[in-house]
Amino acid sequence: MVRPRIKDVARHAGVSEKTVSNVINDYVHVSERTRRVVQEAIDHLGYKVNLAGRHLRKGRTGIIALVVPELDVPYFAELARHVIREAERRSLTVLIHQTGADRDHELAALTGFGSTFVDGVILSPLALTADDLRDRAGAPPTVLLGELLEEGADHVAIDNERAAREATEHLIGLGRRAVWAVGGRDDAGLGTAEARTRGYRAALAAAGLAFDPAALLPVASFRMPDGAEAVDRALRAGGRPDALLCLNDQLALGALRTLHDHGLRVPEDVAVIGFDDVEGGRFSVPTLSTVAPDKAAVARIAVDLLQRRMDEAAAPAPADDPSAGVRSPQDLVVAHRLVLRESTEGTGAGTGEERRPGT
């Protein structure tokens, strides 16, 4: 079957090819009647817009890259779904790349994979340094996600330190005093785990509770087996928490299993809260209290920022002022909320109360 072309649509609608093009490109100076007739012809013939050709005429591929450490981590899988949805609304295609938190893979993404294959990159880096991010000469427009922030780059994240402090304050408010941080890192790093650990320590200090380095349970990665193993190791060493702040939901779900195996009830003996509000936490037993970032907003803002940067990169710059029309880098903080379920509130809490920061 021959694929219909613009001239076929024009002939069927009784208008010029230019008019069909104006309708397809949503040109404002087209009457409603003409727009309706052309759209009916498009629908009748099954005409499909050649998006690749449209992008190439603008000197673009219409492809952006979403670069994350691990795709099988539910947070990143859910984020990818939102990014794809936002990109589709802008007629963009998303290439998803997994780095494994490897610096060489992240550097390759940062430079657009050494080609003009992608128009822009949304990158969640774990292994890159600030120096890596500063040296982006010739790189495509890039929006950073997460905690690693470099002056001169667009950046979208939640306030991880504040969120962890609020979650820890909630546990302390329940009367818990021996609060462990599963996945905590007590160093001066710039990563998400370090920011959440700072928030945890700030909440302890504000409540007059001494910080015990042994309450930080390091993990090799942020997966369920790591959470289960870290808590098991600490319990076998004689530790007895009455609350766990888990730095993501995967660690928390693993911890729930270990607590059950040790005969500890949640939340009666140990209250548990995680981060990310992934789907599995809504179906665990008990259901998991968590810090819920607005993943849809992260995706929407990141794609919007990237689209604007790509438009700026494609626009010819005035010879006398190359920076004209270029906005300053944006550092945008997205909302989060505490979602309180059975793992801190007890049986019957259901999906729980939701509290926004500062409330």
Keywords:
359 residues; 13 helices
Summarize the structure.
By secondary structure, the chain is an alpha/beta fold. It contains 13 helices and 13 strands.
Architecture overview:
The structure is a single chain. The protein has 13 helices and 13 strands. With 359 residues, the chain is α/β, with parallel strands linked by helices. Strands 7-6-8-9-10-12-13 form a 7-stranded mixed beta sheet, with helices on both faces. It has a 6-stranded parallel beta sheet with strand order 2-1-3-4-5-11, with helices on both faces. Strand 3, helix 7 and strand 4 (142-145) form a beta-alpha-beta unit. The mean pLDDT is 87.
Could you outline the blueprint of secondary structure elements for this entry?
Elements: H1 6-13, H2 17-24, H3 32-45, H4 51-57, E1 63-68, H5 74-89, E2 93-98, H6 103-110, E3 120-123, H7 130-134, E4 142-145, E5 154-157, H8 160-173, E6 179-182, H9 192-206, E7 216-217, H10 224-236, E8 243-246, H11 249-261, E9 271-275, E10 289-293, H12 295-314, E11 331-333, E12 336-339, H13 342-345, E13 354-355
Parallel strand pairs: 1-2, 1-3, 3-4, 4-5, 5-11, 6-7, 6-8, 8-9, 9-10
Antiparallel strand pairs: 10-12, 12-13
